[in-house]
Write a structure and sequence with these properties.
By secondary structure, the chain is an all-alpha fold. The protein has seven helices and no strands. Helices cover about 75% and strands about 0% of the residues.
Length: about 180
């Protein structure tokens, strides 16, 4: 726990720097909307739309995304309860928070973990989506720090974990083929 507290102390200056943008109403509303879409709404609609856009073969991609999402959720839940890292606004009361957190703990960023995982799968099958998904995923990750809900390391580790789970799904598919 002492190590986490020291890490929190080291990251708070970055959190405060990013969080300053959250005090500007238009920026705050924009990143709150991005974060809300990153809760799953965008991704679930995308999964449902893939067979409509690309035919029934795309249902396999939607299934892969759903399974990656499930694996990410299980990993996320385990890490949250194992580490119990307090959120930046709980560690430092000058962090401005105007969006409710989905749960109590900070590590890792589930929004980022899922966004990177879903994006990785999508781009593995449909690279033409990069122009939309890469900026959207980056904005989701950025929103988590700007909104005061995560430390930068929560977001970075979430991104690495999401990429790892998604890449693992491709390796599993290759083994099954």
């Amino acid at each position: 726990m002492k190590l986490l507290h020291q890490l929190n102390d080291r990251e708070i200056p970055l959190c405060l720097l990013f969080n300053r943008a959250n005090r500007l109403k238009p920026i705050s509303l924009f990143f709150a909307a991005i974060s809300r879409l990153g809760n799953g709404v965008f991704w679930y609609v995308l999964m449902l739309m893939l067979p409509v856009l690309y035919g029934w073969e795309a249902a396999q991609v939607s299934l892969q995304m759903a399974l990656v999402g499930l694996a990410c959720l299980l990993l996320y839940k385990w890490l949250k309860t194992s580490t119990e890292r307090v959120r930046p606004y709980s560690h430092n009361d000058t962090i401005f928070k105007n969006v409710a957190a989905l749960d109590q703990f900070s590590f890792p960023s589930g929004h980022t973990l899922h966004a990177v995982g879903f994006t990785w799968v999508m781009l593995g099958h449909y690279p033409e989506w990069a122009v939309l998904l890469i900026p959207f995923t980056a904005l989701i990750a950025l929103s988590r720090v700007i909104l005061g809900l995560h430390y930068p390391s929560d977001v970075l580790i979430g991104a690495f974990l999401g990429a790892g789970v998604a890449q693992g799904s491709f390796c599993l598919l290759a083994c099954l083929a």
